[in-house]
Design brief:
GO terms for molecular function: transaminase activity. With about 450 residues, this protein is of the alpha/beta class. The chain has a domain of about 270 residues: Aspartate Aminotransferase, domain 2 (3-Layer(aba) Sandwich), CATH 3.40.640. Helices cover about 40% and strands about 15% of the residues. It is built from 14 helices and 16 strands. It binds 4'-deoxy-4'-aminopyridoxal-5'-phosphate (PMP). The site of 4'-deoxy-4'-aminopyridoxal-5'-phosphate has 14 residues, from helix 6.
Length: about 450
């Protein structure tokens, strides 16, 4: 397998030659929060796959739901006014639970095409309102919004732009709220007013009548689990309302119990104009994402289209097997997983916070089952880990040797997103093994 992989499989977001040197690690099976590799080694998945297996692995009821749907009706297109029961029911269930009037659901295959779809719907919305010149988008530095051509434009991590040559001249960034390394300092109120001022200034520069929408992650994930101060997201929502631009919450990571509630927007009680979700929607068992649209966005698009079709759709939009899985996963969340996730999230945050006394730990941050530990060599000066120690793969490898799968970000940040089904003992092991990784890195 290692040899075949080397020769033929192109891995996502990996060095085209890096994994050739190390060789692929093949996973064979998984149960709960534990995965087993091809050599029979068991590891705790501290990252729920790629922040997605929120419910944990191996739920028989989910497998059964998929099998039943495959037997009965494995595929139905949504084109030609056709449909299937599972996606219709799922849309209704999501609309019922989503904040405010996010009552209209467009199903995608994952997060990137959900973001892409939202961009297309927003362009259509402004056309329908007679303002097609509103074609500029603003997002936040260190944000991640997917890897398709448009979504990668909103993504503010350089590796997703460099060398790809896609015209990204319609997208703009404001600085992140990243409290640990913020030029305005760590004070919450100062960070919030700096972000609001930056959004207003950026809109003014672009021309306020040119701005279509502002995208945020309620907690920035791939940028290093950056948690905004309380009040930040509400202030940004309000600023968008004042500026007359759409506010989009990209909840691809944060939804479905990752931070505690079903949707992270609930934390401050805000209602976005559009929301994107994926990952935890199906808990990684099958691919699916969605765009949730508020009433005014949906109605404006509908009126703009009139009798014409809105020309946006995929063969696998609203896939019945994915929808059947999502319906079952939703039952699991509400049948105890959200509660367990909240309890274990508090345990995880507490356990990681206790690592703050380690000489290598500069910052510990997170909410619920989403966390990060940022490593530095000098706590006073916040000196980032030098390249040799930072080397993402070395931290990842070290954790692996301890029986723990973590994400290690390139900038020396360890990321955590364990399945919500973790037990006390598993959370404690994640923390203990992290301490071992830190001690080994110090040596
Ligand atoms: N938006 C956010 C906030 C994400 O974290 C991700 C994936 N990590 C995406 C969009 C893209 O989702 P996908 O990888 O499913 O295409």
């Amino acid at each position: 397998l290692v040899e075949l992989d080397r020769r033929h499989l192109v891995h996502p977001v990996s060095s085209f030659h890096g994994h050739e040197a190390r060789g692929v690690r093949v996973l064979r099976s998984a149960r709960g929060a534990t995965v087993t590799d091809s050599e029979g080694r068991e590891l705790i998945d501290g990252f729920a796959g790629l922040w997605c297996v929120n419910a944990g692995y191996g739920h028989e009821s989910v497998i059964e739901a998929a099998a039943t749907q495959m037997r009965d009706l494995p595929y139905a297109t949504g084109y030609f006014d056709l449909g299937a029961e599972a996606p219709i029911r799922l849309a209704a269930e999501l609309a019922e639970r989503a904040p405010g009037d996010l009552d209209h659901v467009y199903f995608c295959l994952g997060g990137s095409d959900a973001v892409d779809s939202s961009i297309r719907f927003i362009r259509y919305y402004w056309h329908a309102r007679g303002q097609p010149e509103r074609d500029q988008f603003i997002s936040v530095a260190q944000g991640y919004h997917g890897s398709t051509s448009a979504g990668a434009g909103l993504t503010a991590l350089p590796v997703f732009h460099e060398g790809f040559g896609v015209p990204y001249d319609w997208q703009h960034k404001i600085p992140s709220h990243y409290a640990y390394r913020n030029p305005v300092g760590p004070d919450d109120a100062a960070i919030i007013s700096a972000s609001v001022a930056a959004l207003r200034a950026r809109a003014e520069e672009i021309g306020p009548e040119r701005v279509a929408a502002f995208y945020v992650e309620p907690i920035q994930g791939s940028g290093g689990v950056l948690v905004p101060p309380k009040g930040w997201i509400k202030a940004m929502r309000d600023a968008c309302t004042e500026l007359g631009i759409l506010f989009v919450a990209d909840e691809v990571i944060t939804a479905f119990g990752r931070t505690g509630p079903l949707f992270a927007c609930e934390y401050e009680g805000i209602v976005p104009d559009l929301m994107t979700v994926a990952k935890g929607l199906t808990s990684g068992y099958v691919p699916m994402g969605a765009v949730l649209m508020s009433e005014h966005v949906y109605q404006t698009i509908a009126e703009g289209a009139g009798p014409r079709a809105v020309g946006h759709g995929f063969t696998y939009s609203a896939h019945p097997v994915s929808a059947a899985v999502a319906l079952e996963v939703l039952k699991l969340y509400e049948g105890g997983l959200l509660d367990n996730g909240r309890r274990q999230g508090a345990r995880l945050q507490q356990g990681l916070a206790a690592l703050a006394d380690h000489p290598l730990v500069g910052d510990v941050r997170g909410r619920g089952m989403l966390a990060a530990v940022e490593l530095v060599t000098d706590k006073e000066k916040k000196t980032p880990l030098p390249a040799a120690l930072d080397a993402a793969t070395r931290l990842f490898d070290r954790a692996w040797e301890q029986g723990l799968i973590l994400r290690s970000f390139a900038q020396g940040v360890l990321g955590y997103a364990p399945p919500l089904c973790c037990t006390d003992a598993e959370i404690d092991r994640i923390v203990e093994r992290t301490r071992k990784v830190l001690d080994l890195t110090l040596e």
